[in-house]
Each structure stands twice: as structure tokens, then as C-alpha cells.
Amino acid sequence: MRIALFITCVNDLVFPQTGKAVVTILERLGHTVEFPVGQTCCGQMHANSGYRDEALPLVRGFAETFDGYDAIVAPSGSCVAMVRDAYPRLVPEAARVAGRTYELSELLVDVLGVTDVGARFPHRVTYHPTCHGLRVLRLGDRPLRLLREVRDLELVELPGADECCGFGGTFAVKNADVSAAMLADKCAAVTGTGAEFLAAADNSCLAHIGGGLSRGGTGVRPVHYAEILASDGGSG
After folding, report:
1. Which of 85, 111, 137 is the last residue of a domain?
2. Residue 234 domain-assigned?
3. Where are the alpha helices (H) located in the chain, listed in sequence order?
4. 36 and 105 co-located in one domain
5. How far apart are the first and last CA of the chain?
6. Is this structure's pTM higher than 0.90?
7. In CATH, what number is assigned to the domain containing residue 163?
8. Interacting residues of 19 by C-beta distance below 8 A, sequence separation 6+
9. Are residues 96 and 131 in the same domain?
10. Which of 36, 56, 159, 203 has the fewest CB atoms within 10 Å of its CB?
11. Residue 10 is part of which domain span?
12. What is the CA radius of gyration of the chain?
């Protein structure tokens, strides 16, 4: 199987360790991961902000860059939701590639049939299901099934887990007061679990929540769940 990594803008520019974690996991499972250097932004921020025409070249570029791969994997529920949900409507010929694009937990659980990836992470962790993964991709318990198989990891339930953290891309900018109130609720729920780490499938949401946790002096560390799955016993 030819697997390509779609790193996404946020991960490429701010959280490169997450993309490296995806490669570590898949190579540990015996797969080779390719990185097409022609990849760019998926166009989500353009399309979601009303710049449809500006998004179209990026959609076509994605389809051309990733054509020929059996599976495209990305550590971002948000960007994968853009590709799978919006691409076929924006550029119908992109549907073929969109249908082979997976969020990491989908590739591992549904395509490769794996839940135990050989990880060890001796920490107390809670998990926040981000909105695109929860409501568009409908990831369900796939990430949780993977985390439950991690040796020495104590997974604790997050109260109100399905409530938005208040990020929502430009929502946090355009509706700052509402976003701040939602963030405060989410941070309170996270700290109430007693977890050392907050895991999620999107680093954009983790950056938002992590900022609130840091300003509150909670000591809780945000971490993409891929980095937990790639861990062999360290703190990620």
C-alpha cells in the first residue's frame, strides 16, 4: 500500500513533531510513508472565509499531488474534513482522492485494522474530541480505542467532551467573548479530571485550549494523540 502523509499547514509550521509521530507509528507497523513535496494548504481557511475562488486552485493542486496513492493520512480532523466533505462539492473530480484521505485513527482502525501500535505512555490522559472529527468525520471512539491500548496510560473521561472548545478558526477572533467563555468551561472540565495531558486530533484546538490551561497555571500539557501513540515511554 502506498501511503502519503499530508502534514497540513498548522503542523508543518508550528507542530512538526506531530507529522514525525505519524511516520514513526506507521513505520513501526511496517509501512513506508511518502511525503509529496508539492503539497500546500488544503484551502480550508479560504473556503471557510468566503474565498471560494481562491480555494479552487489549492483543491486541484491537492488532487494532482496526491493522485496515485492508495491512502493519504493527515493528523488533523479539521483538514481531512475539508478534503472529504468539501472537495467533492468544490471540484467534483477531486472526489476520487478525497475518498482515499483519512484522519490517522481512521487509517489505523478501519484500513489497517490496528488498535495496538506498540506505544507506552505512563501518564494520566484525558481526550477532547474536536468538532470536525466529531461532527463531520464522525470519528466516534476510534482515537479512544487506540489510546486504551497504550501501555501504562490512564485514560480518564472528560466531562462535556462533545462541547466545542471555542476555537473554530476565525470564530475565536470574530466572537472573542463567546470563545473565551467556551474556553473557560473547557479548561475547567479538563483540570477537573486531574489529567497530566490533554489529547486531541487537532493541534489548532490544542493550541487554543493549551493557551487557556497555561494562562491558568494548571500544569496540564496539550499533546496530539499521534505523539502519544508514537511514544515508547517518555513524556511525548
Report:
1. 111
2. no
3. 9-13, 16-28, 44-48, 52-66, 77-81, 87-90, 95-98, 104-106, 131, 142-148, 171-174, 176-192, 203-215, 225-229
4. yes
5. 28
6. yes
7. 3.40.50
8. 5, 7, 11, 12, 75
9. no
10. 159
11. 3-111
12. 17
Domain boundary among 84, 111, 138: 111
- φ and ψ of 143, to 5 deg: -60, -35
Q: Are residues 101 and 184 in the same domain?
A: no
Under a CB-based contact definition with an 8 Å cutoff, are residues 181 and 205 in contact? no
**Rounded distance between C-alpha atoms, residue 165 and residue 216, angstroms:** 15
Residue with cell 500539557: 221
pLDDT in tens, 114-169: 999 999 999 999 999 999 999 999 999 999 999 999 999 999 999 999 999 988 87
pLDDT in tens, 161-190: 999 998 887 787 788 899 899 999 999 999
Query: Any residues with CB less than 8 A from the CB of 36 and at least 6 apart, and which?
Result: 4, 65, 66
Residue 236 lies in a domain: no
Which of 203, 204, 84, 195 minimizes the C-alpha distance to 137? 84
Residues 198-234: pLDDT tens digits? 999 999 999 999 999 999 999 999 999 999 999 986 5
Cα separation, 97 vs 120, whole angstroms: 34
